[in-house]
């Protein structure tokens, strides 16, 4: 807005005052709304107050568009010869998804549009779906002599000339989308041997495919096959690879060197959906997992976590870290599946508690609905053997390798051997799969303060029994060995101990004696693990209470 204001300027010249009249220009600026400032800058005048309500009603997001977004949109539009002035007269372009907007412009350019205007990009779907080629030629959008099918086939430089049959579509009855779809199907059939049914499934399940520029599709396939080394079958199984954004893929390969210890290319081959995420999100997720102590081994078991939103990963890890069940399973190599399937896991934990099931496994929490229903409806409950072995090995491993370093591969090999040894020991107890992870974890926390790993492994059946009974006998034998006075420890032993020299007992022997005394009470039947099972639930607070503060 320009306002003429008569002003007197006083200057000193010698001893006299001289006055001048001049016009002062004031420009009205909309400091909080970058689009309005842009409009005024390129048109030379502000948007009138009469038009403003209509503009806000038609484009409610305009006042939330940042200066950076505006500059990015203008940069894309400039690629198609669209000026800032033209954009301001078609403000909807600033509210569009920038990736879609660029794709639409590229497609119109590929189709041979004489000039690309903002309104063509805005009405892209109407133009390519509902307008015949004859109509577009009549309106001057396409050249009269244009053969669209031939033009689109030439976009694929690797398409042999002698294998380009034309359907000879009629311009008067055919739309751009029909021709594009036909050309794309032929190309994928030639390059990947895609069947008609597969192509229809791709178009149905991967909506961007039919609205991705041909040059992008060709480049995406080149990167997938030549750089990432996908085979044809993998691409056909994961059709979204065909419609992936090649620019984003190149940024991932350039900026993300490794994921979960894998080279980024190998990680993508294992979990192709990683291509759906952008490289910044991948790096953010990687840092978050590292901050929460999720090992690379655990990440390798669930690369799907890298397909999620980084904020979601952060929020779920923060919510789960105080959950007792998650803490017990946190050392499991498959722990990330609890994060990915958090909602399912929480729902199933509640059902397990309601059914008064005292044993659960990670597999129960993330398995198929059919497998979980079989578990929840069956009599009794069992723990997954791997979960027990992993819990024990991971808890005592820290003690075992605390004072020396080894490579990640060596550590994994050591863990694998240790788990096998633990399972072999536990298998000697016929009810070993019926002891709750709560009890095993509680016993581990207690025994780890007293003994080293090998001692616990050699007597790991003791972990299946209630802590109260273990403590009773263990404290008694330790007191005897160390010649300390008993503090309210009452243990009845048979006469076989009368001539025993307690001072010579090793840690291994003490744990063996504790296990012997516990099992002897139940005639070595193994029934001792049931003695405190009813109290297991009290060790895990109600789920709603654990999650209340979240």
TrEMBL record:
Signal peptide: none annotated. InterPro entries: MTERF. One of its GO terms (molecular function) is nucleic acid binding. One of its GO terms (cellular component) is mitochondrial matrix. GO terms for biological process: termination of mitochondrial transcription. PANTHER family: TRANSCRIPTION TERMINATION FACTOR 5, MITOCHONDRIAL, TRANSCRIPTION TERMINATION FACTOR, MITOCHONDRIAL. This is (apollo) hypothetical protein.
């Amino acid at each position: 807005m320009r306002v003429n204001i008569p002003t007197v300027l006083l200057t000193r010249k010698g001893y006299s005052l001289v006055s001048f009249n001049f016009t002062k220009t004031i420009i009205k600026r909309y400091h909080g709304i970058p689009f309005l400032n842009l409009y005024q800058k390129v048109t030379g005048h502000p948007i009138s107050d009469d038009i403003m309500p209509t503009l806000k009603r038609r484009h409610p997001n305009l006042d939330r568009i940042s200066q950076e977004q505006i500059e990015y949109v203008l940069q894309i539009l400039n690629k198609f010869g669209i000026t800032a002035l033209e954009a301001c007269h078609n403000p909807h372009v600033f509210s569009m998804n920038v990736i879609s907007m660029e794709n639409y412009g590229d497609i119109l350019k590929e189709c041979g549009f004489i000039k690309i205007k903002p309104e063509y990009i805005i009405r892209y779907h109407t133009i390519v779906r509902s307008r015949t080629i004859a109509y577009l030629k009549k309106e001057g959008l396409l050249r009269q002599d244009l053969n669209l099918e031939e033009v689109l086939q030439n976009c694929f430089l690797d398409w042999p000339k002698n294998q380009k049959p034309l359907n000879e579509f009629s311009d008067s009855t055919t739309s751009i989308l029909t021709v594009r779809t036909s050309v794309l199907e032929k190309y994928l059939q030639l390059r990947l041997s895609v069947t008609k049914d597969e192509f229809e499934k791709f178009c149905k399940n991967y909506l961007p495919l039919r609205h991705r520029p041909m040059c992008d599709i060709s480049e995406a396939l080149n990167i997938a096959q030549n750089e990432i080394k996908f085979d044809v079958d993998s691409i056909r199984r994961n059709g979204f690879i065909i419609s992936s954004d090649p620019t984003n893929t190149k940024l991932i390969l350039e900026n993300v060197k490794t994921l979960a210890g894998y080279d980024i290319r190998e990680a993508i081959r294992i979990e192709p959906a990683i291509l759906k995420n952008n490289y910044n999100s991948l790096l953010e997720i990687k840092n978050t997992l590292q901050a929460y102590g999720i090992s690379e081994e655990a990440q390798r078991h669930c690369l799907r976590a890298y397909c999620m939103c980084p904020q979601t990963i952060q929020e779920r890890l923060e919510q789960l870290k105080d959950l007792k069940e998650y803490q017990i399973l946190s050392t499991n190599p498959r722990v990330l599946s609890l994060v990915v399937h958090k909602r399912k896991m929480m729902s199933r934990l509640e059902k397990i508690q309601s059914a008064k099931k005292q044993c659960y496994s990670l597999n129960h929490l993330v398995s198929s609905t059919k497998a979980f229903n079989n578990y929840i409806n069956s009599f009794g409950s069992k723990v997954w053997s791997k979960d027990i072995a992993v819990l024990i090995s991971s808890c005592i491993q820290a003690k075992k390798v605390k004072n020396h370093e080894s490579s990640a591969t060596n550590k994994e090999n050591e863990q694998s051997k240790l788990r096998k040894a633990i399972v072999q020991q536990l298998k000697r107890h016929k009810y070993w799969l019926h002891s709750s992870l709560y009890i095993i974890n509680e016993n581990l926390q207690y025994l780890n303060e007293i003994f080293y790993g090998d001692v616990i492994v050699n007597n790991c059946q003791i972990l299946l029994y209630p802590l109260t009974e273990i403590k009773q006998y263990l404290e008694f034998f330790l007191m005897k060995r160390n010649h300390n006075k008993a503090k309210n420890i009452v243990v009845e032993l048979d006469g076989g101990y009368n001539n025993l020299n307690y001072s010579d007992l090793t840690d291994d022997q003490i744990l063996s004696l504790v296990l012997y005394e516990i099992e002897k009470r139940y005639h070595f039947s193994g029934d001792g693990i049931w003695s405190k099972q009813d109290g297991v639930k009290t060790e895990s607070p109600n789920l709603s209470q654990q999650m209340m503060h979240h």
